[in-house]
């Protein structure tokens, strides 16, 4: 049983670390985007919508994008909470496998490649697909 736990932990650890880093990147980009959208929305609220032709539909698109971003932020926050729960469990239980030292790493050890970080537009399109 212990060998199974160790194998499972060692198999999942790199994927969880990559996922965690990607989530941090998404949260950071969402915060920047949300700040920009709020700033733009405030500027649009100052101008009367009826004075500029076509602005009304762009304002509606901006509102829709803001709602999508809020949904994605909620999803990312849930994922962060789950990862934090996993981290807490691992901290309480202690490491199953000791971390390798520089001396114990061979030259043949290769770090797993991390998949590309999805863009915000990919996430928005993903939200439409679900």
Describe the structure.
- It is a single chain.
- α1 (2-46) runs antiparallel to α2 (55-93).
- 2% of the residues are buried.
- The chain is mostly helical and 130 residues long.
- It contains 3 helices and no strands.
- It is rod-shaped and about 70 Å long.
- The longest helix is centred in the first third of the chain and has 45 residues, at 2-46.
- It has one domain (2-94).
The overall number of domains is 1
Class by SSE composition: mainly alpha
What is the assembly state of the chains in this entry?
Answer: single chain
Mean pLDDT: 74
Number of strands: 0
Note poorly predicted spans. 107-115
- How many helical elements? 3
User: Beta-sheet strand percentage?
Assistant: under 5%
Shape annotation: rod-shaped
The first-to-last residue Cα distance is 38 Å
Run of helices and strands: HHH
What Rg, in angstroms, do the CA atoms define? 22 Å
Main sheet properties: none
- Which range best describes the helical content: under 10%, 10-25%, 25-40%, 40-55%, 55-70% or over 70%? over 70%
Characteristics:
130 residues, mainly alpha, Biogenesis of lysosome-related organelles complex 1 subunit 7, Snapin/Pallidin/Snn1
Structural topology:
Blueprint: H1 2-46, H2 55-93, H3 120-129
Helix pairs in contact: 1-2
Family: Belongs to the SNAPIN family.
GO molecular function: SNARE binding
Region (Disordered): 92-130
Brief synopsis:
With 130 residues, this protein is mostly helical. It has helices at 2-46, 55-93, 120-129.
